[in-house]
Amino acid sequence: MIAPPQRRALVRAIPDSYAVALGQVIGAPAIDVARARAQHVAYRAALEGLGFAVTALPADEALPDCCFVEDVAIVAAGHGLLTRPGATSRRAEVEAVAEALRGAVVLHRTRAPARLDGGDVLRVDDAIFVGQSGRSDGAGLAAVREVFEPLGFAVRPAPVAAGTLHLKCHVSSPLPGLVLAAEGAYSDAMFPASTRVVRVPAAEAYAANAVGAGETVLIAAGYPETATRLRAEGLTVVSLDTSELALADGSLTCLSLLF
Ligand code: GLY
Fold it and tell me: In this predicted model, what pLDDT tens digit does every residue of 149-172 receive, in sequence order?
């Protein structure tokens, strides 16, 4: 029997300049870059533990946010849409990821003046939701439609609350058919009918951003009720320290492209 191809994960190392990565929290403590790197190493190891073949791109000191590769490409069904990040300081992150994806997927580009961050793009099986946030606009939604609707995906806009950076800050789909969402964020009716929606308490909203494979979900450490609810669904939960990622508004999905 021929084994199915191993799923791939693309990540990018953390530069020293991560100390000045973008962050919304005024007065947040200084980022400990060495600790951030240790958290990144643990994340990569956890992805390998899930069976992903991990490729790590080198950091670029000119791009403090470059570890958040999710924002610069949308990859699904053998196609990759390179984004045009909403933050101008992040636009040059795209090229190294484009180079890494070339040959692995059919590449497309988001054209100016559209703005699109991958953190605003949530795939739930055959549906793709595009958050309308301070980073992603209607033209970004149109770019996703142009690439993915012909491939059979239903592409829809999703609101993002003021003050929330990205759609996936409070909702993610770590496994096929599973959505993890903060209580009060988005209605179950928004997702395909077959979707199993697990709610996390509003006080644990950060933990709604998760990744996984098989029957295992990686969540941020420090959110016990979220872990309990996922275990009650029969899933294995692995918790990862994300303190230094959160200081730059980062969470687990932000750190990888999985395909
Ligand atoms: N620090 C991640 C972002 O703001 O894009």
Answer: 999 999 999 999 999 999 999 999
Q: How far apart are CA 167 and CA 155, in angstroms?
A: 14
* DSSP-assigned states of every residue in the chain: -PPPPPPEEEEEPPPGGGGG-----TTPPPP-HHHHHHHHHHHHHHHHHTT-EEEEEPP-TT-TTTT-GGGGEEEETTEEEE---SSGGGGGGHHHHHHHHBTTBEEEEPPTT----GGGEEEETTEEEEEESSS--HHHHHHHHHHHTTTT-EEEEEE--TT---GGGSEEEEETTEEEEETTSS-GGGS-TT-EEEEE-GGGGGGG--EEETTEEEEETT-HHHHHHHHHTT-EEEEE--HHHHTTT--TGGG-EE-
Q: What is the pLDDT of residues 225-256, one digit of tens each?
A: 999 999 999 999 999 999 999 999 999 999 99
**Domains, the chain, ranges and CATH?**
8-258 (3.75.10.10)
Active site residue 79: no
Which atom of ligand 1 is found nearest the CA of 248? 1
CA distance linking residue 108 with residue 73, whole number of Å: 9
Distance CA 22, CA 89 (A): 9
Query: Ligand 1 centre and the CA of 135: distance in Å?
Result: 10
Is residue 40 among the annotated active site residues? no
Residue 241 is encoded by which pair of tokens? 């320290």
| Ligand 1 site-directed mutation target among 68, 70, 116, 164, most atoms within 8 Å of CB | 68
